[in-house]
Amino acid sequence: MEIKGDGSGEISEFDPEMKMDGKGGDELDLSPNLFLDNVGEVILTINSNELSWKSLESTDNNDLNSSSCLGIKLNSKAETELKIPDIYAVEFKNWSSIHQSVISNAGAALLVREHGVEMYRFAVHGFKRSSTKRSLWVLATYTFGNADLPTCQKWVDKINFYVNKEIGRPKRLLVFVHPLSGKGNGCMTWGTVSPIFSRAKVKTKVIVTERAGHAFDVMASLSNKELNSYDGVVAVGGDGFFNEILNGLLSSRHKAPYPPSPAEVIDSAKNSCSTSVSHPTETVPETSQEYKEQDALLQSAAPTRTGSDCDSCATGESTSFPLPNERFRFGIIPSGSTDAIVICTTGARDPITSALQIILGKSVRLDIAQVVRWKTTASSKDAPYVRYTASFAGYGFYGDVIKESERYRWMGPKRYDYAGTKVFLKHKSYEVEIAYLDVQTEAVKSASRKDLLDTGIQQLWRSWVPSKKTKREICRMNCQICNESSETNYMLACDPTATQETNHGHSGWLRCKGRFLSIGGAVISCRNERAPDGLVANAHLADGFLDLILIKDCPHAFYLWHLTQLARKGGKPLNFEFVEHFKTPAFVFTSIGEESIWNLDGELLQAHQLSAQVFRGLITLFATGPDI
């Protein structure tokens, strides 16, 4: 009998005339008796949920299950099932050996021997979760055999029938590989995972970048028709490389009103009192920092848009590429220096885990922040320049570290530790003016604080020790906060700030001015190996908020205390009086005097004035969300 296929892994379609029972279970004409490699003879069953097997050895020799060797119980913990959604490929392997374990009871000990028997084989490829870290996915292959060729072929067809019913799995992907990312192992990382894509029959067009901006140029030049021919785009690299690909797609396709400029916000508050930040060595006033409420977001800057307006956001071409776009997803296979986005969205910094989540079509929505630079320097006259960020926008300490680290690229990822130490020892603060859009949530209730009644050393100490602040639900897989209605999510992508105002009641601009060591706008928690809980442990992937973190000028020792809390699992880096934390959909920034530089997902941006707003769930990632 001839095998359907060419023997290279191409499997024929399931025969619809095969007889099946009323429950869609075992086929009446298909033998369930097979041999499982390294186990022995098993009874194999399948339904729409799982593929399972039971060893005939355990059925016939139940007494062996309670046997012991040297007083140690030998209960088997072997896998006996594989969920259909966890199977990514089935391969016919032709004629070869299946190894069987033969167990004999010899007094008080068990003797285990293995011998090979040649037969036709097929392999079922899936994954299992690591026993030490649940979020880590480990490849698992189960090889079954039978001396009868039609039996093996029918089992291959039947398993493929159920696997092919899984929806959302990509068929064609565009892959960018950064050869110099992280420790320069981008190509090696892709070489490790590419066989998994081939095995799963996912077609990939691979582009190894040759220069900075190469991926951006390719993404920006693709027509909507070309983009729609792919199910997604995958970045093999770090956060900065993903940022380049993201900006290449959004720069020409995402059409939305800019957030208001700092001048617009400050002009609307010209009669309000300026605020300042007190240095701990100075006398502490009744309120250490005052925030004044200003007019809500200017309607001229963010006009209300209708659904038909949103349809035209993507492009003027006849073939549309809508945003948000749940069909076209982004994937990241980690090969960078920090890989914070991957850690926050998959729970693991592991290329195999990321590849499997891409192949199996996992999906999670992700907020994206739009950053608009209005002025490069105080005296420049620039056209608005737009950048997008998926994880973090930071100024002061965060920008100085990235700028300093550029001098030491030859050091690899260690350059961040070295540059961070140098910047920390300089302890530079910068005078800026910040205004953020306030919304009525529990996360932004620090606008007024009770007066400090103590004096002298006690007053100074209490103003800087950690304080208790409201806890918030941690983002995790199937997060309820992130999985709110798609209609709300869609409207936010078209006009985020206006919709936030509708959802959360009255909003207004709150303004503060003073000296800060750092300013951070976190889109996600930014977990990484140096900060295991991230900058903001309770940040969400798609809640429509930025976490604005203002670190006021403070003594060296107190800032070190804050940084050590960041580096600790379970630390409380935000629970200091010199740290302000606000949930906001938008903020504006103006530098005063000496300037630092902005860090956008690891990429540098010089800006004297800028505005930022978040677009809720603007893109979809191939990921499950953090499995905590």
Automatic annotation (TrEMBL):
Pfam families per UniProt: DAGK_cat
Biological processes annotated in GO: ceramide metabolic process
Residues covered by region (Disordered): 1-23
Matching InterPro entries: ATP-NAD_kinase_N, Diacylglycerol_kinase_cat_dom, Lipid_Phosphate_FormReg, NAD/diacylglycerol_kinase_sf
Residue ranges annotated for the DAGKc domain, each copy included: 168-375
Domain of life: Eukaryota
A molecular-function term among this protein's GO annotations: ceramide kinase activity
GO CC terms in record: membrane
Protein name: DAGKc domain-containing protein
